[in-house]
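Model: You mentioned two targets. I'll fold them one after the other.
Researcher: Yes, keep them separate.
Model: Target one:
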Amino acid sequence: MPELPEIEALAHHLREHAVYRPVARVDVASMSVLKTVDPPVSGLAGRVVTGAARYGKFLAVEFADRPGAPLHLITHLSRAGWLRWHETATVTPPKPGRGPLALRVHLDAVGGPGFDLTEAGTQKRLSVHLVSDPAQVPGIARLGPDALALSRDEFAELLADRSERIKTLLVDQATIAGIGNAYSDEILHTAALSPYTGGGRLTDAQIDALHAALRSVLTDAVDRSVGQGAATLKQEKRSGLRVHARTGLPCPVCGDTVREVSFAARSFQYCPGCQTGGKPLADRRLSRLVK
C-alpha cells in the first residue's frame, strides 16, 4: 500500500508535470471507484490543474475554478492502487471492466499527457472523490495529525494512557496520519521496540527513540522518493526496507532472522534480536491488532 513517502512523491511528480495544464477529458473505466456523483468528473473538462497535495495517505489534485470554487480530485490508492503518468494515451475511451485502469485524465488534448489511476487484483478498494473541499471526504475528515508534523511532546501526548499496542497506534489514521504497515515495521525496528508494546507504557527514553525513528524513517524515505518517476517508486520503497517483507532474511543490524506475524490477509515483520530480546512473537497474540 502506498504510504506517506510515496504519496508525497506522487504529489510532487504531479506538481512538476501536470500544473498549469488544462483537462481535455476524463475517462471512467470503473464506476465503482467514484464515491461522489455531484459534481460529475466530466465537469473537470476545461479546468486547469493548479496543484497537488497529500492528506495522510490521500492524494489530492486541485483544479482551477471556471468560475467558482476550485475542485479537488482526491483518491485513496488502498492496497493495490497506483497513479501512472503517461505522455500519450489512446483517444478511444476505455471499456468498463477491462484491465486495471480505473480512471484516466487527459491533459492538454485527448490522447496527450496525463495520468491514470489503476488497481491490480480482484479486490477493488481504490476510491475517488470530486469535492470542493478536501474535508468533505470522510477519510480525510477523520485523520489525526500528520506524522511528519508531530513534535516529540505532541507525539507523547497522543500515546499517553493508550492501552493499544504501539503497532496498532502507528497505523491508526485517526491517531497519526500517513503511516501504514510497511513503514510502521521499519519505525519500530529502528526504535528497537516490540510491536506488542503498549503505547501508554513507553518510557520517556522509548518515546524519544520512537519519535526520532518516525522522523528519520519517513524523511529518509521522502528524500529517496521525491523526484523519482511514478514508475520507479515501488522499487525505491522496497530497496529501502530493512525488515518489512524480508521474512527469513538476516537483519542488516544484528544478523538475526527476520520473523513474521500473520493476521487475516496481512502480516508484519520484525527482528527478534533488535526488538524483542531474541524471543519470537506468537501469532495468537495478534487477534485484535491492526484490521
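Model: Target two:
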Amino acid sequence: MKKLRWRRIIGLFILLILVIAGLWWGYSYFFSNSGEINGEKSLPEGSAISLPKVPLTPSDMTEAQKQDVINKLMEDAKASALQSGQSEEQAENFAREAGEVARQAMNRPSTVDGDKAQ
C-alpha cells in the first residue's frame, strides 16, 4: 500500500484555497461593482427621478428652443474655427453658414414626423 504524502495533500489544499479566493476576488472586483459609474454608486432600485421632458425631434421643439440650439451650434462652430487657426472673420462666416444649415435642417420635415401624421 502506498504511503500518503501529507505535504502534497496540504500543499494542494492551500493551492485550492488560493485559487478559490482569487476567483472570488475577481468576480467581486469585475462584476459586483458593475452598478458603479466613475466611482459613484448607482441609485437604489425604485428611486424616483424627475427628469424634464427633452424634445427628441425638431418638430417637438418650440421656436425659442430651436433658436437656442442654433445659437449654441453657431457659438461652438465659431470656437472650433478659431481654435483651428482661422481668422475672426473666417470663423464668423463659418458660424453663419453652420447656423443657416442648422436652421434649414430644423425646418425640414423629417421622416419621423411623417410617421406621426399617418
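Researcher: Noted. Anything on target two?
Model: Helices lie at 6-30, 63-83, 88-107, 111-117.
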